[in-house]
Amino acid sequence: MRSLKKIGLGIFLLGFVAWVGTLTMGQFTLTDAILKQELKPEHYELLRPALEPMIGRTYASPFGFGRDFNTAFGRINDDFKANQQWDSVIYDNYAFPVARAASAGVLTESTLLWFWLTFGLAILGALLYILPNLRQLPGIKNDHIYHRSMTSRGWLGISLGVFLIVFYVGLYFYPEYLVNWTLLVDPLSRALSGNPASQWFLYGFIYTLAIVVMGVRMLIKYRHSPYQMLRTGSVMFFQTSFAFIIPEVLVALNRPYYDFKNIWPLDYDFFFDWHLNTLLSNGTLGVFMLVWGIALAFIAVPILSYFYGKRWYCSWVCGCGGLAETLGDPYRQLSDKSLKAWKIERYLVHSVLVFAVVMTALVLYTYFTGQAKIGPVDSYSVRSVYGFWIGALFSGVVGTGFYPYMGNRVWCRFGCPLAAYIGLVQRFKSRFRITTNGGQCISCGNCSTYCEMGIDVRWYAQRGQDVVRASCVGCGICSSVCPRGVLNLENADPDSRVTVAPEVLFGNDMPKIK
Fold first, then answer.
1. What domains lie within the chain, and their CATH numbers?
2. DSSP code per residue over 85-136
3. Tens digit of pLDDT for each residue in 407-446?
């Protein structure tokens, strides 16, 4: 079994190294025809002189090509800004489509071969590394998660975190440097939607692939728990179908790209003018999508959260939660359980929710009135700030890149506005709770160790108190790793929750209420 795992690890690393190496491959030659094809006519006239030195020159990688293109592009915009010609400033991102059109060489000529030499080998290696675990007896074991370099903030974990951060920064802000990776998945994109692969298709593919492959690991690791098997199968299904395949098929049918499981305010641009106009211009289906999204946010969320708490979405449907539960499972024990972290969590996640609500209100005001400013506040600036700091940096770069540093639910715990919204319902008016049997608790600490949301579950179990927290996503791992069956996920009358008397929480310093 160990030999097979070593072989699998070697094959995975071979595919991974080949994948990274493809970034340095190929040739990039800019022509005047490419500029006319990819640039708007008014921008072609402005950019053509600045890009003249690049025309006809062949670059050996996307890095040199992207650097020179961005330098020329930035120089033009800097001149406009210096001369206060704000109407002439170019906001379109041309670097990626131009780099893609200028690409040639081995990757474009043998795309399928390189796909299997990279993604194919990585998938095969990962499965060969994971599948031998089936020979172990079911159940959670002491697998030294705090002694491994990959899962205890060691050099391997830190290296992985750095890679994920660099990947997200490149994906969001410098996709022209990753153009070779999009070429690898181009045949799949054309098969699903008929369009060439963009950086967002690449992202969706890798995202889905990670959930599926690491989902297999979850199914094996927690196969002693039917609840975990169903939950893992659910997130794999929703990500693959609703988040990846169906939106691409809609595009192939000339319909709006739409993820039917994404809900405002997590889907923060749902009420943006361009999105509303796109839906309303697509007839009956577009109107249905609009009504569906509104109904999910304002009807389905409170009703389903009342009956099932956060788990119906955060642990069974959400793509962010799906990635955290599968790819991020090896790092769940790194979540901070301190009181200080809990205080930061409550203030931060609810601040993001307020930010999202205020931004949406401003966006809708602009949409219906045509006025961008309300006093000194510009709605376009507000949405831009939210998209950069929350939509890109927080949810992407920090939310996933920090798995090996802060645990697998950094975004869900500290930043997701939808998690904050559902959490308020769960905390104050929901039938969901985790019940405890304090008399059976042996204080092993498994429940607290494996809690990805930073909840000290053992504290509740020792006191026989129900776990009723706005942050709890109902993943049920605490129950699955408990050796005595102390913890159970239940749905019952909200008024029947068992709580501890204030004296237990505050001791002799309990404030007196007059």
1. 27-104 (no CATH), 150-431 (no CATH), 432-509 (3.30.70.20)
2. -GGG------HHHHHHHHEESHHHHSHHHHHIIIIIHHHHHHHHHHGGGGGS
3. 999 999 999 999 999 999 999 999 999 999 878 899 999 9
